[in-house]
Specification:
The protein is of the alpha/beta class. It is built from nine helices and nine strands. Strands 3-2-4-5-1-6-7-8-9 form a nine-stranded mixed beta sheet, sandwiched between helices.
Length: about 300
């Protein structure tokens, strides 16, 4: 029944590295390794959630469909997880990755169920619940070496409630998230997992908590404040990869121009336009920083890199 320290280390050492989770997103030296944290940051509607679904699917899909076959914990603090959308993307990837010969009846559903069995979803409605969830995860992490990824959407969901509850004291405002970050740091070290977390963009035109000494006073409307870190220092110290998302709308000359249907109403105009998203990756896990910019759009089957 008991397990020696050597047995535990051997079991945890088998945990899958996610350096190859998405080569088109991270710099050439690879994506996040064991014990590293990726923060997805950007204003609303810039493709963060779709990219999160893309990375989640990449993890739970079988290797035959281009996946990594690892278990994932999805901590949903915004109650915004769209399971129908996630299943639709998974189904599309399974179909695209299937063999050309017709699969046996019911095999698609069985493959989809197997993918979903690798996903554990937890909902949190406060930073106190998030802290308890992280404590609870330690049991799962120690017993499931196949669990390699923790997704948090979003790590900043309780920023404003915590500010109100903390009153005028910055230490009180940041206390709960700081405890979460400290516990998360221990889980990263002890269990060699990888963490992806989205973060809401917020305009900080005030000297709020964790703000830089001179940046808040010199901020102007021409320099965007959205990409400045505002969460507590313990969390910022954990982050090794930062993905900054932005959106650009372009008249789509790449999509077929003079389509069918002679009406020049809103429908055809909408068909000639599509949204293209930019993601800029900064990796600081090594001594020298690495950068990479990528373009992507969102299709029915999920994220498509350009």
């Amino acid at each position: 029944m008991s397990e020696s320290g050597a047995q535990l280390l051997a079991r945890l050492d088998a945990r899958r590295s996610l350096k190859d989770i998405e080569p088109r997103l991270f710099p050439e030296d690879g994506g996040p390794d064991h014990g590293e944290v990726v923060q997805l940051f950007g204003t609303e509607g810039t493709g963060k959630t779709e990219m999160l679904y893309h990375l989640l699917c990449r993890c739970v899909l079988p290797t035959a469909s281009g996946g990594l076959e690892v278990d994932v914990v999805f901590v949903d603090t915004d109650y915004s997880l769209d399971m129908l959308r996630l299943v639709s993307i998974l189904d599309s990837r399974l179909t695209a990755g299937g063999s050309s010969s017709s699969p046996p009846a019911g095999s698609d559903e069985a493959a989809l169920r197997l993918c979903l069995s690798r996903l554990l979803v937890v909902h949190c409605s406060s930073s106190s619940q998030l802290l308890l969830t992280l404590h609870f995860l330690e049991t799962s992490l120690s017993s499931r070496p196949g669990l390699a990824l923790l997704l948090i959407d979003s790590i900043s969901a309780f920023y404003w409630p915590d500010r109100c509850e903390g009153g005028a004291s910055i230490a009180k405002q940041e206390e709960k998230l700081s405890k979460c970050a400290e516990l998360l740091g221990r889980l990263l070290r002890d269990y060699r997992i990888t963490v992806f977390a989205t973060c809401h963009a917020i305009r900080r035109s005030y000297g709020g908590p964790s703000s830089s000494s001179s940046s808040s006073s010199s901020s102007s409307s021409s320099s965007p404040d959205y990409d400045r870190p505002y969460l507590c220092r313990p969390w910022q110290q954990l982050v090794t990869h930062r993905l900054l998302f932005s959106r650009q709308e372009a008249a789509n000359s790449m999509v077929g121009g003079g389509g069918a249907g002679g009406r020049g109403g809103g429908g055809s105009r909408e068909q000639r336009r599509r949204q293209i998203f930019t993601v800029h990756c900064t990796s600081s896990s090594s001594r020298t920083k690495a950068y990479r910019s990528s373009l992507f759009c969102v299709r029915d089957g999920g994220v498509e890199f350009l």
